[in-house]
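Exam revision sheet. Question 4 asks you to relate a sequence to its structure. Input first:
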Amino acid sequence: MKSALNFIDVNDYQRIHEASLKILAETGIVFQNDDAVEIFRKHGAKTDGQRVYITKEMVDKATSTLVRTYEFSSRNPEHQVTVGKDFCVQPNAGAVYIQDLDKGRRLATIEDYGNMMRLAQASDIINLVGAHPLNPSDVPDEYKHLYMCYEVLRNSDKPALGWAMNGKQAKEYLDMIQISMGDTPGENTGKQYANFSANPLSPLSWSKDTLDSMMEYSRRGQGIYLLPCIMAGLTGPMRPMGTIVLQNTEVLSGIVFSHLINPETPIVYTPSSTSGYMKRASYITGTPEMSLINAPLLMMAHDFYHMPSRCMCGMTDAKVPDMQAGLETMQNVMIAVLSGVDIINECLGVLDAIMTVSYEKHIIDEEIIKRCLYIKDGIDTSDEALSVDVINEVGPGGTYLTHPDTFMHFKDSYENDISECEGYNDWYQDGAFDIAERANKRFKEILAAAPETMLTPDIDADLKAYMKSIMR
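Answer key, structure tokens:
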């Protein structure tokens, strides 16, 4: 999508790229995985232990294979999306706690995880599911990926993001997705059926487990979202431009690595860094610097590297869905959308710097996203839209309320979903509910109406048998 903003000059793209090339060639990247280092060595890269030096030629070759769009399949063909063309909204990743007005804040469970999938399935704005919106505390860590994948497949037939803590889990998650689609696990179908977010270990490192997972996804031709989460002043330079360069350097290293495994692997540029909270040396997400660091790279992904982009952009440091939550979430979502991002996440109920998900804020955030997309679409500027004939017909002191042009176009106006715009007396007589209370009622209605399962009995049995074979 084309950006509507300009934070840096387009000439800066080349400067950022060349700065990254210099760092890759002179300082290198640490790959904490002997198999990964061996892959680089076989392709002629200079290595020093686990430090790999990546040349301009390797970067040029890898970036030349990048694709701007690709098809992301699902069990239901009606839900297939074209990444890089369709605007995509996906669930969050990483929250530990769940929160609502009735029970307060508590550790999330596998039931809460399933509820996130049910809300996503029912939404007309969310078109990707899966990932790790909540960390279920009531299932064994060793098999958590299996329980989560089953909940994804049981409660949704939209395209699914994968999740794994190591290569073994990556394989098993992918196997389950393929089983749900009627394919043989490990079979190369040529389809995109699960994509994966890979986080560098900033600064300038990749962990063994992440690299193992990347290798599994790349070998099976599944998309990789390269996701630096740098904290300026802590794990990256204090000045935004420095963290921009560091992010780009880490992304390029991931592009080259994925390309060496499988040149056909779709890659999504996923800048998601922020400034550190220097009073506490901790992670925060509501700061304006987050947008200033990430927005230029969203534009650079589109205009310079010609690849899709994703951004974590619905975060806030607020602890409840209050005014702070609203202003920080709208700030982050709006800037990302206007910067031309293709996929957004961390934008559905996130509170407290991704530690908590609120059921109520999940509903509120869907409206925030809809508003931002409505603004992004702009307005009709055609000759007819100038409405000169209509203005002349109504004339001085007339009314447009009953004019045919109004009846033809009034449904084009934005219509509130959960926001309140009735008069005070009507609002008061209807119970005087605030937005969180209305959202509380809404999410309960959605969950109550959700089907028990979206799996056929045969597929359900196959998935359970696969899980049992691993957990025995």
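Marking note for examiners. The chain has two domains: 63-376, 386-411.
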